[in-house]
Amino acid sequence: MEARIAPQMPVMEKLKILAAAAKYDVSCSSSGSSRRNDGTGIGNTLAAGICHSFAADGRCISLLKILFTNECIYDCRYCINRCSNDVPRASFTPDEVCSLTMEFYRRNYIEGLFLSSGILYSPSYTMELICETLHKLRTVHRFQGYIHVKAIPGADPTLIQRAGYLADRMSVNLEMATAEGLKEMAPNKHRKNILQPMRQIQNGITANQNELALYRHAPHFCEAGQSTQMVIGALPESDYQIMSVAENLYDKFSLKRVYYSAFVNVNGDKALPAAASEPPLLREHRLYQADWLLRFYDFRVEELLTQDRPNFNLAIDPKTDWAVRHLENFPVEINRADYRTLLRVPGVGVKSARRIVAARRFGSLRFEDLKKMGVVLKRALYFITCSGRMMYPTRLEEDYIVRNLTYQNQMGRGEKLPFMTDGTVYRQMSLWDDGLLSG
Asked: Cβ distance 255 to 225 under 8 Å?
């Protein structure tokens, strides 16, 4: 299709506007694909070809992260690009996105592209422009690097399917944990329109995996999977509601990641939390920790939270919080416990649990051995024994353990969070930082 986008504004001015407009979308993972360069193009998606750089608040900065346009027909209350806001507006053309991607890649500034968009004219119109952009990148410019693109809810399913064969990962933002919350915060969006492309992408991935099993050279469809994002703190949704939705998405839609974005009040809408309130970064951090427990530690949401206790204790991490409320399962004998039991011990991670299981075949382990294996003993010591002995004389009491762990945090010997170390206010890296574009 011919793009009806006026290119009068200089491309670099557009880039400043649309890179800044994209910073609130956190679901920009750059991993999961293994498609190789076939020798005819530029870039690849191998692990060695992707630079995993993250800002101090956890945002990925290895990709050229931009919106195709911040002109939007929707009026979402939490979004800086809502149609009722008086902000500078800009739209790229497909050729401009291609040119920026290739030039930044050749200068080694980026390793791939993360492309989202506001809704220009209609969902299908916007999605067709995005597909045209990806098609030109892949066929005209022979770009074989990583591409993550947003699927536009409400767009023609054939366009979603086409984008899936051009991108490595796709995502559809759920935005709010509940359908009621979405209706209140984003009156133009509907839960059904969001879940439909999610299901389509999941079905496309499954069908493609079957094709690849039969035909080695079949085209790849969204090889790195799909992800989504929820805004945290714009509404009084509980951690239990948020994590229950995330668990359901993992179970029923096979998502690779659910991202949690601490709400930043940029609009001053009366229906939103006070503009002076700080983003709930610590809460976001705890949700990510709990998400990790769901994905890699065999936990279920109902073990971590209940309707009677719907929010995490911000003072300690979710696994420690679970452990102190289930002291009947402890202490765990390191030299006898099975792998799943070891994963439930605070301070013991997936790698260290595997190392423990492997190493104890050759002899009994001591506390000094655990430290070398990566066990965080300052948390684990309350919950484990080695050959029947604890590391220090201690009490297996909830108040005692929590008091000691929170005291360590207060004294600077506990968990260090990126936004709690020196008072620095962190933000997403800009392409203009540190003279990146100079020279």
From this structure: yes
